[in-house]
Amino acid sequence: MGKGLSSERYNPLYINPKKCWDQLQLVIGTEEDVHIRREVNALYVYAFCLPSCREYLSGSKGEGFLFPWSDLDIMVSKLPPEEISMESFHNDCAYIATTNGCKPGFCKLIQSYAKCDYYSRVEFLQLKQHAGFNVNFDQTIRGPCYSTNFPDGFDCCYALPVHPDSSNVFLRTFKTKFWNGVKLEIMNKNITVMHCVPKGPEKGDDDGHQWLISFSILEQNIVHSLNHVQFCCYGLMKVIIHVVIDICAEIHDTVSSYHLKTVLFHVIEDIHPEFWISQNIFYCLRICLTRLLLFVMRGYCPSYFIPENNLFSKPRMAEKRRIIQENLLDVLQCENALMYCIICIQVPSEKNELQNESRKVRTFYSLCLALRVVNGHQTTYRECINSVLKIMVALQGEEDQLRIAILKYLWLLIMRRIGVIMYDKFVLTGFESYLLSAEVALMFAQHANNFGSIYLATLWYCEGGYKQCIKLVSKTKKNLPTGLLKETVYLKSVVNKCRKGPCNNTSLFENHYVNLTVELHRTSHLFPKDLKELVEKATISEFIVYYKSYAYFLLFLCYYTLHKRTECINVYSELLKSYREYPFRLAGNLLQRNTKKILQILR
């Protein structure tokens, strides 16, 4: 690392803080970008949350970052009466938590109304597993989380909420210099911000009774209150750790985002608020990295909320501490290395192209990128209908145009899922009403983006409506963007549209938001039978192909069934061309391999 960042390569005359700050805005996002992401997250959780629980989008994406290497993390918390009272009995709580005999940061749970042993984490996780967390997704258990086995999946962690009365007691005694406004709002509104997570300490819990006291939601509220320089400093630390620590297999996954957030909170307590301005971003960053280095050298990283809890207590951290220390020193001792790190960070070319465009175009692009997080994790018909109704109620009283656009897009996305579910019901039962419902739902859903029609076209193909399928795909094909696509927005068309006259985010989706892949789930029936074996035997839960190639594949099948040889030859040529021209960078070899298989079928 030291040789790669030698100061001899850099000339401070050509690298200045202003240029680095501008680059950082492209990497982390502007204040408006972060605001849009958080609006999407909030409405996404609102729309998909079940009546019986509260769900939180946690982790980096929940904080407002959009790093490609970050997972989607979801915490599911049961609503009352399954709440916890800390240390004392509470009428509204099912459990009492005690920290006696526990490692710092952990507690044991006992039922409030019964004399029994401590509630085991294992029992809790087994109950959740038997409840059938999500039967339509492949899943594995990873510690306290359920992980889905497909690209852009999510980690779901179940937790028990701590009653606001108990968390307010803690908040009143906790002294801070920078988030007192957050503290006051939480206490005044009785917001649930603490949970017990079924994760035990590294050592000293053979019986599985100790639960982690999680401040995840409280921390997220604090991060959301940071000014943009503090937020960017946090994000830049994440980037540097990703390229300095995680890139090395020997020390990968030793220093986590949680450690960085803890360091940031400690530093903000010590540094005057007026110091956190864009001109000082690298001084702020250097102070934070120096504090992290100090913690690493001491082998002690005090938890922000419970200082006696050492976050560096894991054996692997102790084993690799010297190597981590050397890597951090390489970064800090190299003159201009931090600035150079930012200058060299690759940014999608579209972001640079948009710098001179209107605010509307830039906002739409940010909105489309933020919506890539919205995959959804509920799949049953009842859950979808519940979400549809919630969105319709929210739209009635909503006046903010950005939030309206997000809600409408979520509504269309859910309608597509309903269409797939109803078609599955039709295949299994033969009831024509299910087929009609599926068709209507997918007719709505085709407006979600400029190739959302592909699912409706697939339904028509499966039901023998070949001419309808051809007509729909051919019409949509005329609006497809030309050239190589690296992102989700057809920038040329959206720029032309907004230059001609007024435009809004809702109207831009239909023709300018590109869905680059078609995802065929192996538990569904909505895919051409020619792909049945490939879909059902996919190594992941979804068979994913490049959308333009799939469109030509569908057209070929229709023309072949109708015995139109000339059209088959022409479409096959276009299919071959689409495969060769597209770089297939989104899902790597998986997307490329699956797309190539549809060519092999046609041969």
TrEMBL record:
SMART domains given in the database record: Mab-21
Gene3D superfamilies referenced in this protein's UniProt entry, alphabetically: 1.10.1410.40
Pfam families in the record: Mab-21_C
Domain Mab-21-like HhH/H2TH-like, residue spans: 233-320
PANTHER family: CELL FATE DETERMINING PROTEIN MAB21-RELATED (PTHR10656), MAB-21-LIKE HHH_H2TH-LIKE DOMAIN-CONTAINING PROTEIN (PTHR10656:SF69)
Name of the molecule in the record: Mab-21-like HhH/H2TH-like domain-containing protein
Organism, as annotated: Magallana gigas
Lineage of producing organism: Eukaryota, Metazoa, Spiralia, Lophotrochozoa, Mollusca
